[in-house]
Amino acid sequence: VLAAEQKCIENAIRCGGLAPTKAACIKNILKCLLESKGKLCLEYLRGLSIDEIKAELSRFRGIGPKTVACVLMFHLQQDDFPVDTHVFEISKAIGWVPTAADRNKTYLHLNQRIPKELKFDLNCLLYTHGKLCRNCIKKGGNRQRKESAGNLCPLLNYCEKSNKT
């Protein structure tokens, strides 16, 4: 990947969105790893504390809190709770976070309050629900709330009244 043309990487990851930006970041991370560690491997992270891992990964351009949390949870099996668009929107809708919370505040808020043993499964459930539920998919900036009998969202009863239509 380090030797590949950026367009080749972009084409390979296009389905994830922001391909040009992500491809440049991937190449940069690989270049930095090779220069600083002599190899293209992140296994050295396993010997660091969570705070050290967060600091280490955050030094790479293009790596933000969500990506760090994903590496911690999915690769290193650490108890963390990434906040993507779906988790953020659902958490706001059901009133789990303060109204004015942005994604970073939501990340901090949920990581303090969700029990460690629930973080992985709950995160996967919220992400999957947000991807699949027709009622929770954002359309044009507004929540789409189709309330036909076959499409009722099981979370609608937990949403604050201001979010229901």
From TrEMBL:
Domain HhH-GPD: 3-132
GO MF term (any one): hydrolase activity
One biological process term in Gene Ontology: base-excision repair
InterPro entries: DNA_glycosylase (IPR011257), HhH-GPD_domain (IPR003265), HhH_base_excis_C (IPR023170)
Entry superkingdom: Eukaryota
Protein name, per record: HhH-GPD domain-containing protein
UniProt source species: Citrus sinensis (Sweet orange)
Classification of source organism: Eukaryota, Viridiplantae, Streptophyta, Embryophyta, Tracheophyta
